[in-house]
């Protein structure tokens, strides 16, 4: 197949592109390099099955493809809050452009949605049927509401125009190719520990997250995209739940670091708990995470050490 991956030079996108090429597909990677890096896809430049398009997804584009994976959107709170209006445009106009293209060329189209559609959840763990608790006027809303509207558009194009959609709700994912200045918690803590700097825990550190290793997530993407039973939304994430303080302690121990934990203010609307209910993914996709946090952290720490000479 010929497959378009938007955001293909980013953390998740570049792993997905690798996987799709390995499976024997042709891949077009569309990216504006806001948070993506050429380095993530450098090894593919020159491959006859790979094409790179520098393009901003808020502007329409035309390509002949069989499948579209829409990942273009900054994912770290630091990056998506840098220009919140642009983040909304990327999610909403990006979804419209992908869906319009999918309709025109009859491609199947996949949306990378997020556990952020559940906001600061008062149901725990979160099943797909939970409708969420999002503050529509807070600092996270540009991302959360943008992604919620994108889901709405996907389901309206599906109902109104018969567009063949798949929607995944991704829970916190980590691994090699995260940026050292990405701002998300796993990369922040690893880089701080390797540099011997203070580990910045926001708030009291009792808030929880469930961390999925990137290879497991990509397997879930491909399984969801290539089955005919369900559109989603489907949660993909690792249900192992940890407090942020537990994560900090794990990283310090693994790196054998002299770093000390310091506390900084908890950002507004930071969800207090998050854990996916993955019953649907288990039953419909036969998907299950295979890499636990210890193993995944070891691999990610090894990447940061070698890639950035830390
Ligand atoms: P990332 O920031 O590494 O990747 C996003 C990519 O999109 C980058 O390459 C960036 O340059 C590109 N991009 C951003 N705006 C664009 C625009 N206007 N036009 C074209 N390209 C643009 O983040 P990631 O972690 O790889 O996330 C990928 C997708 O998965 C995002 O849609 C994100 O919302 C979603 N997601 C990720 C996680 C996670 O834990 N990693 C969790 C939930 C959802
Ligand atoms: N966090 C932290 N220190 C950091 C970065 C993040 O304590 O240096 C916390 C953050 O407040 C949140 C959790 O870690 O409670 C996960 O943050 P991240 O930005 O990785 O993802 P998200 O909040 O979008 O799940």
Core attributes:
310 residues, binds nicotinamide-adenine-dinucleotide, single chain, 38% helix, binds uridine-5'-diphosphate, Rossmann fold, two-stranded parallel sheet, 9 helices, seven-stranded parallel beta sheet, alpha/beta, globular
Explain the overall architecture.
The protein is α/β, with parallel strands linked by helices and 310 residues long. It has 9 helices and 13 strands. The protein has helices at residues 11-22, 77-80, 84-105, 141-161, 185-195, 214-225, 244-255, 279-285, 293-308; strands at residues 2-6, 26-31, 50-54, 67-70, 108-114, 165-170, 173-174, 199-202, 208-210, 212-213, 234-236, 241-243, 261-264. The strands form 4 sheets. A 7-stranded parallel sheet has the order 3-2-1-4-5-6-11, sandwiched between helices. Strands 7-10 form a two-stranded parallel sheet. Helix 1 packs across helix 6, helix 3 runs parallel beside helix 4 (141-161) and helix 7 (244-255) packs across helix 9 (293-308). The protein starts with a strand and ends with a helix. The model has no long low-confidence stretch (mean pLDDT 98). The structure holds nicotinamide-adenine-dinucleotide and uridine-5'-diphosphate (UDP). Residues 7, 9-13, 31-36, 56-58, 71-75, 90, 112, 114, 170, 172-173 line the site of nicotinamide-adenine-dinucleotide (NAD).
């Amino acid at each position: 197949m010929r497959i378009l991956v938007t955001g293909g030079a980013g953390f998740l996108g570049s792993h997905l592109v690798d996987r799709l090429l390995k499976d024997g597909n042709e891949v077009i990677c569309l990216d504006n390099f806001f948070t993506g890096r050429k380095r993530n896809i450098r090894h593919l430049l020159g491959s006859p099955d790979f094409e790179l398009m520098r393009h901003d997804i808020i502007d329409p584009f035309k390509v002949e493809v069989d499948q579209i994976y829409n990942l273009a959107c900054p994912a770290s709170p630091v990056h998506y809050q840098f220009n919140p209006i642009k983040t909304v445009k990327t999610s909403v106009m990006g979804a419209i452009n992908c869906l319009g293209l999918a309709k025109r060329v009859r491609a199947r189209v996949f949306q990378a949605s997020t556990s952020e559609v559940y906001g600061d959840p008062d149901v725990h763990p979160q099943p797909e049927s939970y409708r969420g608790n999002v503050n529509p006027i807070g600092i996270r809303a540009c991302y959360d509401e943008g992604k919620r509207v994108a889901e709405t558009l996907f389901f309206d194009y599906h109902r109104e125009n018969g567009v063949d959609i798949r929607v995944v709700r991704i829970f916190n994912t980590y691994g090699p190719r995260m940026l050292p200045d990405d701002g998300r918690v796993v990369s922040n803590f690893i880089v701080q520990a390797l540099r011997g700097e203070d580990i910045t825990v926001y708030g009291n550190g009792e808030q929880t997250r469930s961390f999925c290793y990137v290879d497991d997530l990509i397997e879930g993407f491909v399984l969801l995209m290539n089955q005919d039973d369900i559109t989603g939304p489907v949660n993909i994430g690792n249900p192992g739940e940890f407090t942020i303080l537990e994560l900090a302690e794990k990283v310090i121990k693994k790196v054998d670091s002299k770093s000390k934990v310091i506390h900084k203010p908890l950002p507004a609307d930071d969800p207090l708990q998050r854990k996916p209910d993955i019953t649907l993914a288990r039953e419909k996709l036969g998907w299950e995470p295979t890499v636990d946090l210890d193993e995944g952290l070891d691999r990610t720490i090894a990447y940061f050490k070698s890639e950035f000479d830390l």
